Structure formats: structure tokens, C-alpha cells
Amino acid sequence: SKKGFIFDLDGVIVDTAKYHYLAWKKLAESIGVNFTERENEQLKGVSRVKSLEKILEWGNKSISEDDFMKLMAIKNDDYLTYINKMDKQEILPDVERVLNLLIQNNQGIALGSASKNAKTILKKVSLIHNFDAIVDGNDVVKGKPNPEVFLKAAKDLKVKPNQCIVFEDSVAGIQAANAADMISIGIGEAEILHEADFVFKDFTEMENSFLIELINE
Ligand code: G6P
Ligand code: MG
């Protein structure tokens, strides 16, 4: 039957999580805030605005609205210097195998990302044409763990939420998928993503037979 397969972008399709980390770390240090990978984990799946709010909170800083906007722009400009260098080689291992299998089986394929740079990135890595629907940070009011982004993707695919499967690398994203009544598949470490229905280290660990089962369930 036709299911909806919804992919997160950062950390699932491409490893932009490392670029977000580098850009936030540089920004945090420029305002005297220490920023570790542990803290970065909590920013995965979280919007740009919320991310900066958290960094300021951790560093006990309060700044004007004006400076807030400036810092957001600095971070994104820095992030975009990494993005502009991206090409197809940055697609994570076996993502294309999974996409091709789903396409061959006439499944619905959507993007469900918090990023406002999602379309730019999908174009850079030449994957944009594979998606039947794209819902990103420009389309939603409530960010993950709120299920809005995934519910909107399901709607665009014309597939019921409980017929959707979500691939996510963030805790907030897994929570959003669960709240949307979708099957949640964590891509990353099982200890971190323990709320997911299934966890795979990466797509190389996910066999075609597993995907076929999801389709036929
Ligand atoms: C994804 C990433 C987050 C990022 C968010 C917004 O969810 O996991 O780390 O903050 O998108 O991205 P943007 O590209 O709009 O700054
Ligand atoms: Mg992600």
C-alpha cells in the first residue's frame, strides 16, 4: 500500500549537523559562551531562534532584540559558507538506495525539516526532484517536538498520519513523530534516540527487506 515516508534533512540526508555545530560554536564563543557537543545535541531539530535562545540561556546572557537579530544573521551567513560548498558527495551513505527503493515502490516521499535553508541544501545535493512534498522551517509555526511539520507533510502527501514513517536524528524530531502517531525511526545512537520505534546507526544498516515490510504492513 502507499505509505508516506518523511525524511528529516540535517543529520539524516546530509551531515549538515556538523556545520550547524561549527557555526553555533563560533558564534557562542564570540559572545563568551562555552558550547559543547553535548549542548549541540539539544539543538538538533530545534529552530534557529530557539537555538540562539537556548545558547543565551546556557551562557546567562541577555541581549537586545536588535543584537539577537544580528547574531542570528551572523550564524546563518557563516553556516551558508559551508552549505555553498556542498555537492552530491555529501549525501549520507545509502540515502539514495533508500530513496530509490521507495520511488520504485510508488511510495510518498516528503521532507520534514525545521530548516529555512532546506530547499537550498536539497538543490545543492541534487535531491530536490525526489520529493513529492517539502515542509520546512518556512512553513510551520510550532517547531519540533510539536508534530505540525510532519502532519503538514502527511497532508501534502495525502497519506494518513498513522500510515507515515519518519526518519529522524534528533530527540525533538522523534518526539514530534511519536506525537503525530507516526512510526518513528531514529538515525543515530540508540541511547540518545531511545524514544524511537526503531533505531539504526545510519542507512547502511537498514536493509531493503525492512523497508519492504514497512510498505506492506
Ligand atoms: C534543523 C537542524 C537544527 C537547525 C534547524 C534550523 O532542524 O537540526 O540544528 O537549527 O534545522 O535550521 P536553519 O537552517 O533554518 O537555521
Ligand atoms: Mg536532523
TrEMBL record:
Active site: D8, D10
Pfam families referenced in this protein's UniProt entry, alphabetically: Hydrolase
Residues annotated to bind Mg(2+): D8, D10, E168, D169
Keyword Phosphoprotein: yes
Biological process annotations from GO: carbohydrate metabolic process
Cofactor stoichiometry and binding remark: Binds 2 magnesium ions per subunit.
UniProt: substrate binding residues: 8-10, 24, 43-48, 51, 75, 113-117, 144
A GO term for molecular function: beta-phosphoglucomutase activity
The protein's required cofactors: Mg(2+)
Keywords from the UniProt entry: Carbohydrate metabolism, Isomerase, Magnesium, Metal-binding, Phosphoprotein
Catalysed reactions, semicolon-separated: beta-D-glucose 1-phosphate = beta-D-glucose 6-phosphate
PANTHER family recorded: 6-PHOSPHOGLUCONATE PHOSPHATASE, HEXITOL PHOSPHATASE B
UniProt protein name: Beta-phosphoglucomutase
Organism per entry: Hanstruepera neustonica
